[in-house]
Design a protein that fits this description.
The protein is an alpha+beta fold and 362 residues long. It has helices at 5-20, 180-193, 201-210, 231-240, 353-360, and strands spanning 40-41, 51-61, 66-73, 76-82, 90-99, 105-113, 122-125, 134-135, 140-149, 159-170, 222-224, 246-249, 252-255, 257-263, 278-284, 298-307, 316-329, 339-347. It starts with a helix and ends with a helix.
Length: 362
């Protein structure tokens, strides 16, 4: 299985900058240039990322396993690991990162999407690094990453080709562990509605929302990837969110379920889109299964609201991401499982999202 998405983008970006950079600085852009079965790779580079990998060295191996370090950029490591036909086979690489900022950062999570990890029978673990471990401004931090077979698997594929992000964030922005998965979706939603890559992502999203009659939705005010959503809606959202709805975090596969709504959250028709509607994204990692047919079950749901001052041409986040609960239902609104009712969302202090946004304007 070839890893196409991030590796191709990063390689094209790096090689483009390398070829067209001004004379005298070309050597500073060797982010992901391929190497020939090197067991040590140290590339000196001028980077814009505050915390970035400076060196990767292959350390302990069980016997004759091989590792190809295909490169690294920022906190992304591109590698090719081949283990033996032995369940005890393993290999460890030592990663060194540097904090070039003027503030303390902390380790958040090890992340990769499914199309950046070719063999789920091989897992990567960080025995010495955990969520919240800090790296001070101007300091280096070393940690080990060990590749080995997952417990109980039957060996059918001994090769792992992967791009893994060892993510560090400013200490004062470090989320709680239950927020890690939805943070990636939130960042990508901001990119989508502001069309950061200038690929028409906002128009694509709006056009799909408007096409509610062909996608079994009551109206054009919402779209989601929940159970009961149309295949077209699910596929479109998966494409727009670029792997941030299905992600492996510290070795655990995590699915993020979302519902995007256009609603007048702030009760102000002069903000939002041309109809005065904000864009709100509701996110959960819950399996959305009702405990029993009788009674009401709820799921933990995060919500963020984005508004606009130019009729929906550009968007900004209002306040923070808020944690609360919503009633588990079917997507059609009937009792059951698979989705949740955004109209029932309440924060941990029992406020609605409208009340929270209104309080920010007082």
């Amino acid at each position: 299985m070839k890893i196409k998405s991030l590796s191709r983008i990063l390689l094209i970006l790096v090689l483009t900058v390398f070829l067209f950079s001004v004379v005298g600085v070309a050597a500073a852009w060797q982010y992901l240039l391929p190497v020939e079965k090197s067991e040590s790779l140290s590339l000196s580079a001028e980077r814009t990322a505050t915390v970035h990998i400076t060196k990767v060295v292959v350390g302990d191996k069980n016997s004759t396993e091989t590792v190809e370090i295909d490169g690294f950029v920022e906190t992304f490591l591109n590698s090719n690991v081949t283990l033996l036909n032995n369940r005890n086979s393993f290999v460890t690489v030592t990663v060194t990162v540097y904090n070039s900022s003027n503030e303390t950062y902390a380790y958040n999570a090890m992340k990769h999407s499914t199309n950046e990890y070719s063999n789920t029978d091989i897992v990567c673990s960080l025995p010495s690094l955990k969520h919240g471990d800090q790296i001070a401004a101007g300091d280096y931090l070393q940690f080990d990453a060990t590749f080995k077979y997952d417990t109980g698997i039957k060996i059918t594929d001994r090769v792992l080709q992967s791009i893994i992000n060892f993510q560090f964030l400013p200490l004062d922005e470090l989320p709680e562990e239950e927020q890690i998965a939805v943070n990636g979706a939130l960042v990508q939603f901001d990119n989508i509605i502001n069309d950061i890559n200038q690929q028409g992502t906002l128009d694509t999203l709006i056009n799909q929302m408007d096409d509610h009659q062909n996608n079994d939705r009551y109206d054009d005010s919402y779209i989601g990837n929940v159970g009961g959503a149309s295949d077209q809606d699910v596929e479109l959202l998966d494409e727009l969110f670029q792997g941030n709805l299905s992600i492996n975090i510290d070795g655990v596969d995590t699915e993020v379920t979302i519902i995007i709504k256009r609603q007048n959250v702030d009760n102000n028709l002069s903000t939002g889109d041309a109809n005065g509607r904000e864009m709100a994204i509701y996110m959960t990692t819950d399996d959305l299964q009702k405990d029993s047919w009788f009674g009401t079950s709820t799921a933990p749901v995060f919500v963020s609201v984005f508004s606009s001052d130019d009729g929906g041409e550009s968007w900004y986040q209002v306040g923070d991401m808020y944690q609360g609960t919503a009633t588990i239902k079917q997507y059609n609104g009937y009792p059951g499982s698979g989705s949740f009712d955004t109209d029932t969302w309440k924060a941990t202090d029992n406020r609605t999202i409208g009340a929270i946004i209104a309080s920010l304007q007082n």
